[in-house]
Amino acid sequence: MIYKKQNLRKTGIVLMLIILLTIPTASAGWSSIAVIPSITGKVVLPGDTVEFPITIEKGYNNSDKAWCSLSIKGKNDGWSTGFYNDGDQITCLTFPKNKDSPEEVILRIKPPIDTPNGAYTIWTDFKPDDGNTISQEFVVNVDSEAVLDLDIYSNVPGLETRPNDPVEFYVTLENNYDHRVAANINIVEKPDDWDVEFLEEDNGKYRITKTSIAANEVQNFIVKVRPPLNATDGTYPIVLNADLENSRLGVSQQLDLTINRGIEEDKMLSIFPGTKSIGLNPGSSEEIVVNLRNMGDWTLNNIDLKVQDVTGLTTEVRSFGTVDELEPGESWDTSIEITARADATSGSKEVLMRAVSDEAQSIDGIVEVTVEKSSSSGFLGIVMVIVSIVILLIVVSKFGRR
User: Fold this and answer.
1) Looking at the domain that runs over 265-376, which CATH code has it been given?
2) Buried b / exposed e across 178-201, counting CB within 10 Å, b at 16+?
3) Of 293, 203, 184, nearest to 247 (Cα)?
4) How many Å apart are CA 108 and CA 247, to the nearest integer?
5) Which of 12, 26, 161, 224 has the least C-beta neighbours within 10 A?
6) Do 150-259 and 265-376 share a fold?
7) pLDDT tens digits, the chain, 402 residues: what are they?
8) Exposure string (b/e) for 150-174, b if CB count within 10 Å is 16 or more?
9) Who's near 238: CB < 8 A, 6+ residues apart?
C-alpha cells in the first residue's frame, strides 16, 4: 500500500512538471494586460505571407486604464514583419478605463523569396504600462514545397466561336488563406490583335485589374475574348495570372478558344413551337406558345420573330416586339394567334416561323394547320340552298303569270 502511494506521489509530481512546462511564456508573470495567441507556428512558401492572430486584453480584475507597446526582436534580415489592427500597422494599444473588451491583433510575417528552407523563430515583446513584459515566440517554417493557398480555375476552360464573335469564360479565384488577400489579374499569353478583358460577374460591364478576397472565400469574374475578323481556324491559348499583391507568387489558368468559321448560325438561335399541329374550322383561331432560345456562347441582340404568310390563314405575333438581347442559355416565350379565314379551303397548311437577330438566325419552326369544314356548317349550307329554291319557286308561281 505504501509502495502504491509513493508511486502515485511520483506520478503527480511528473504531471505537475509537464503542466508547468506546457504553459505558454506569454502567461508568465503579472501584467496589466494578457496576451493570448491562438496559433504560434505556421508553414509558408518563400516570399509568401503568414498571419498570426493574437488577442490582447486587460489583466484579471483590472478596471483601470491600461496600455502596452508591441515590438519585434530577433527578426531575420530582409524579413517583413509588423502588428496590425483593423488593417492599420500599430506599435501600441490603449485600453480605456472600465472597458474590458479585448483587441484582436495580427502579426504579419513575410520571408524573402530566396529564404532557405527551415524553421525560423520570431520573438515579440508586449510591454505593459504596469507589470512584467510578456515575450512570445512564433515559429515560421519556410518550405519551398508548400502549397500556395490561392487557386484559380474555370469549370469550362474551352469554348468554340467564329471570327469576330466574342465569348465569355467564367473564372473563379479561391482564397484558402485564413486572412484576406489582394491579387492582381493580368494576361501573360494571348494571340496578337485579340481583345481580352476582365469583367465583374455581377454586371458584366466594369473592367477589373485587381481583386480583394476575404479569408476562405471565392471571387468569380468574366474573361471576355473577342478574336479578330481575320482569325484563322484553330485552337488558341489565353493564359491569365493572378499574382498576390506585393509578391512574385501567383497562380495561372489557361483558357482555350477554338476558331471555327464553319459554325452554323442556325445552331446559335433556336425556335421551339409549343405544338407541332393544330386543327381549325373556317373563322376559328388558336393561340400557340413559341420559345426562342440562345444556344450559343455569346449574347444575341435585337431578336425578332418572323412568320410567313399562308393562303387562307392570318397570323399575329402577340405581346412580343423585339427583344433587345438574349444572354447565352437564356430563352424568351411569346405567342402567335393563327386564324383560319372564312374562305379558307379544307386541307393541311404549314406555317413557317423564324427567329432573327443581328448575329444569327434560326432554322424554320413549322406548325401544321389542318382546316376542316364541320358537318354542321355543310348541313346548314344545304338547308340554305333548299330554302332559297323554295322562295324562288313561290315568287315565280305568284308573279310569273302576270
Assistant:
1) 2.60.40.10
2) ebebebebeeeebbeeeebebbee
3) 184
4) 14
5) 12
6) yes
7) 333 333 434 434 333 333 333 334 444 467 788 899 999 999 999 999 999 999 998 876 666 788 899 999 877 889 999 999 988 999 999 888 877 789 999 999 999 999 999 999 999 999 998 888 999 999 999 999 988 999 999 999 999 988 888 899 999 999 999 889 999 999 999 999 999 999 998 877 789 999 999 999 999 999 999 999 889 999 999 999 999 988 888 999 999 999 987 766 656 788 888 888 999 999 899 999 888 888 876 788 888 888 988 888 999 887 656 788 888 888 888 889 999 998 888 899 999 998 888 878 888 889 999 998 765 555 555 555 576 677 777 766 666 554
8) bebebeebebebbeebebbbebebb
9) 187, 189, 190, 194, 196, 223, 225, 254, 255, 256, 257
The neighbouring-strand residues paired with 108 are: 51, 82
Q: Please list, in sequence order, all residues whose beta carbon lies within 8 angstroms of the beta carbon of residue 230, skipping any fewer than 6 positions away.
A: 163
- Cα distances from 152 to residues 168, 170, 172, 176, in angstroms, run 16, 11, 6, 11
Helix (H, G, I), strand (E, B) or coil at 286: strand
Domain ranges (residues) in the chain: 31-142, 150-259, 265-376
The CATH superfamily assigned to 150-259 is Immunoglobulins (2.60.40.10)
Topology at the third CATH level for domain 31-142: Immunoglobulin-like (2.60.40)
C-alpha cell at 155: 469549370
Place of cell 438561335: 269
Residue pair 237/256 in contact (Cβ under 8 Å)? The answer is yes
Residue type, 136: Q
Residue pair 163/231 in contact (Cβ under 8 Å)? The answer is yes
Residue 343 grid coordinates = 374562305
240 in Cβ contact with 185 (< 8 Å): yes
Residue 144 to residue 380: CA distance in whole angstroms: 96
**Cα-trace Rg, the chain:** 40
